[in-house]
Write a structure and sequence with these properties.
It is a single chain. Helix 1 (2-18) runs antiparallel to helix 2 (34-59). The chain has helices spanning 2-18, 34-59. It has one domain (1-60). The longest helix is centred in the C-terminal third of the chain and has 26 residues, at 34-59. The protein is mainly alpha-helical. The protein is elongated and about 50 Å long. Keywords: Membrane, Transmembrane, Transmembrane helix. The chain crosses the membrane at residues 33-56.
């Protein structure tokens, strides 16, 4: 179970680091709608990984 939680954390951090790149696209609109969605997905993955890790550590399984 631990490798899956680390995968969620790493995937979430990757989403958070890639998201600002979508803010500076010159498509006519100043802010792309892809960046906030990607940031929310990244935050969700990090929270799932961290909460699962804390839950497993506190219950000792």
């Amino acid at each position: 179970m631990m490798p899956e939680l680390f995968f969620f954390i790493i995937l979430g951090l990757c989403c958070l680091t890639i998201a600002p790149l979508f803010l500076f696209q010159n498509d006519g609109d100043p802010v792309s709608f892809t960046a906030p969605g990607l940031m929310l997905i990244g935050i969700m993955f990090v929270l799932i990984g961290c909460c699962g890790f804390v839950g497993l550590e506190s219950y000792g399984s």
